[in-house]
From TrEMBL:
The lineage of its organism: Bacteria, Bacillati, Actinomycetota, Actinomycetes, Kitasatosporales. Residues 402-478 form the AMP-binding enzyme C-terminal domain. Belongs to the ATP-dependent AMP-binding enzyme family. CDD domains: MCS. NCBIfam families: PRK07787.1 (NF005858). One of its GO terms (molecular function) is medium-chain fatty acid-CoA ligase activity. It comes from the Bacteria. Residues 16-350 form the AMP-dependent synthetase/ligase domain. Pfam families: AMP-binding, AMP-binding_C. It comes from Streptomyces alboniger. One of its GO terms (biological process) is fatty acid metabolic process. This is Acyl-CoA synthetase. PANTHER family: ACYL-COA SYNTHETASE, ACYL-COA SYNTHETASE FAMILY MEMBER 3.
């Protein structure tokens, strides 16, 4: 990776770098295992990594970075068609995998290389130099998007973008070598792999991966000295649900230095429940595969429910209207699309110059497709995706996110999603999709409409309410609105 900031603290060879369950590696052992593997990757075009939540995945990615070979993390839960597309598109030379793990038929034509933990002779020096400068624009990772509007696209992430983002987060979060991070995030996404694994290694600290998220694991690791927790809204929702009956979990969270949520908006009612039980507020950040991290609430800033903070160092951010013109900066109710530019951006979509060109506005601004409001002090509030969450009803532009938060404040609502559908009079009518807290006593449509109108404005109330047993979500806990029944 490129190293635009002062060199990160060096960890000693015997300091713990990675822990997955009962297995761990010191920095010396990580250097030995990844160095030996890197030597075997020399000359490879690209390598795929079967990204199970394991030490092997972390070592495989570090080895690829050391070898200067772009790594393509693969989601073990992906279907055969999606995997076949990714393999054909990225054309890796081989696939790195945990020994003994069975690979699907879509990968049978790839040469397999098992990641073996040969740590009989740990390196005596400091941590492996995965964050030292090589070629700033050289591709480090190719991470595939979710493919909600077509086949997944491979976002090419250069070393420059990864280092820039991690150093900006270190500034915002006061992240140091003394921090111990705990999380249970998957390692085929930016959140768990770059922020949650390479982040601690760049700082010289350590990460304790839960393997599979559980509130018991969070309480155990934070209670045993971990200082930071990364999670997605689904995880924090489970924490909020467990807190009333789990004083040890409340105590562990109260002792953490930083609780961070990302990958989707954290509902306000979960913010408030966690704060009430622990005295600690979760901070949010905002990023994408193509941009890595754009904004965050700072460690020394004000945690504000429903806000993702201010732009990170080096990131330029603006809100624009449908004509591409900046929305008035002095109007906190003006909704606009977020566009960003800076050294945190990807270099393009692999093999897709057309999609790359379409993703950028003149001047190098990346079109995120996310709609937001901006407070007078610069805090950004995301209200939804342009394609699915911006509802044009009765002449108003309405963000689905603020309605969802209002609905979640109702005691009878467990989960909520808001969409728009065609209406001959309004243009679009607001539709609420509700998972009731008690299916036997679900709140009526009129009750929910009045609840929203009392908190926001009458034109933001849902005109239609539909009830479900559960909302469709992806691996990161994001609601998949395109999968809602029609």
């Amino acid at each position: 990776m490129n190293d635009p900031a002062p060199a990160a603290p060096r960890a000693g060879a015997f300091d713990e770098a990675l822990r997955f369950g009962e297995r761990s590696l010191t920095y010396g052992e990580l250097a030995a295992a990844s160095g030996a593997l890197a030597a075997r990757l020399s000359g490879a075009h690209r390598v795929a990594v079967w990204a199970t939540p394991s030490l092997e995945t972390a070592v495989g990615v570090v080895a690829a970075l050391l070898a200067g070979v772009p790594a393509v993390p693969l989601n073990p839960k992906s279907g055969g068609g999606e995997l076949a597309h990714i393999v054909a598109d990225s054309a890796p030379s081989l696939v790195l995998a945990e020994p003994g793990v069975e690979l699907p038929p879509a990968l049978t034509d790839l040469t397999r290389l098992d990641v073996v933990m040969d740590v009989r002779e740990p390196a005596a020096g400091p941590r492996p130099a995965v964050t030292e400068p090589d070629s700033p624009e050289a591709p480090a990772l190719i991470v595939y998007t979710s493919g909600t509007t077509g086949p997944p696209k491979g976002a090419v992430l250069p070393r420059r973008a990864i280092a820039t983002t991690l150093d900006a987060l270190a500034d915002a979060w006061e992240w140091t070598a003394d921090d111990v991070l705990v999380h249970g995030l998957p390692l085929f996404h930016v959140h768990g792999l770059i922020l949650g694994t390479l982040g601690p290694l760049r700082r010289g600290g350590s990460v304790r991966h839960l393997g599979r998220f559980s509130t018991e694991g969070v309480a155990r690791e934070l209670g045993a000295g971990a200082t930071m927790l990364f999670g997605v809204p689904t995880m924090y929702h489970r924490i909020a649900e467990a807190l009333p009956a789990d004083p040890e979990l409340a105590k562990a969270l109260a002792g953490a230095r930083l609780l961070v949520s990302g990958s989707a908006a954290l509902p306000v009612h979960d913010h408030e429940r966690i704060a009430a039980a622990t005295g600690r507020r979760v901070i949010e950040r905002y990023g994408m595969t193509e941009t890595l991290m754009n904004t965050s609430v700072r460690a020394d800033g004000e945690p504000r429910a429903g806000a993702v903070g201010v732009p990170l160092p080096g990131v330029e951010l603006r809100l624009v209207d449908e004509a591409g013109e900046p929305v008035p900066a002095d109007d906190p109710e003006a909704v606009g699309e977020i566009q960003v530019r800076g050294p945190n951006l990807f270099t393009g979509y692999l093999n897709r110059p057309d999609a790359t060109a379409a993703a950028f506005a003149p001047g190098g601004w990346f079109r995120t497709g996310d709609m937001a409001l901006r407070d007078p002090d610069g805090y950004v509030r995301i209200v939804g995706r342009k394609a699915t969450d911006l509802i044009k009803s009765g002449g108003y532009k309405i963000g689905a996110g603020e309605i969802e938060n209002a609905l979640l404040e109702h005691a009878g609502v467990r989960e909520a999603a808001v969409t728009g559908e065609p209406d001959p009079d309004l243009g679009e009518r607001i539709v609420a999709w509700i998972v009731p807290a008690d299916p036997r006593n679900q709140p009526s449509a009129q009750e929910l409409a009045s609840h929203v109108a009392d908190r926001l404005a009458p034109h933001k109330r849902p005109r239609v309410v539909r009830y479900l047993d559960a909302l469709p979500r992806n691996d990161m806990g994001k609601i998949m609105k395109r999968a809602l029944p029609r």
